[in-house]
Task: inverse folding
């Protein structure tokens, strides 16, 4: 089963340039989790799956921590989700986009996507 949260929008302070860390920027996060939550299809019980709100709260908490690299933020999000649901999550796929990055030109977004597959789930 795939659980997805799309286009979560945050204002955060990620970037290698000093101005990015002072002024901040808008970011979009997409996340996909592969999990064995088939029981929830039958039970209609939240305890048989992973709460979307809990996923959002993890992403929100990690986005609040300023980082130089988007890669680092993605890695932290993946690690936090895996730590929370280690036995349930088979894979985590995170895409983090910085909107209108300060490159001195018209760039819609700069993005990083990282996917990790876990053996333990």
Result:
């Amino acid at each position: 089963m795939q659980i997805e949260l799309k286009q979560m929008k945050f204002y955060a302070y990620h970037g290698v340039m000093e101005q990015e860390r002072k002024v901040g920027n808008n970011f979009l996060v997409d996340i996909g989790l592969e999990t064995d939550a088939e029981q929830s299809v039958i039970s209609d019980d939240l305890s048989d799956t992973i709460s979307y709100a809990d996923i959002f709260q993890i992403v929100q908490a990690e986005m609040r921590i300023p980082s130089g690299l988007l890669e680092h933020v993605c890695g932290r999000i993946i690690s936090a989700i895996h730590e929370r649901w280690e036995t349930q999550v088979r894979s985590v796929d995170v895409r983090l986009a910085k909107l209108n990055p300060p490159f001195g030109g018209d760039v819609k977004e700069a993005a990083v996507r990282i996917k990790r597959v876990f053996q333990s789930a």
Summary: The first strand starts at residue 2 and ends at 12. The chain has one domain: 2-117.
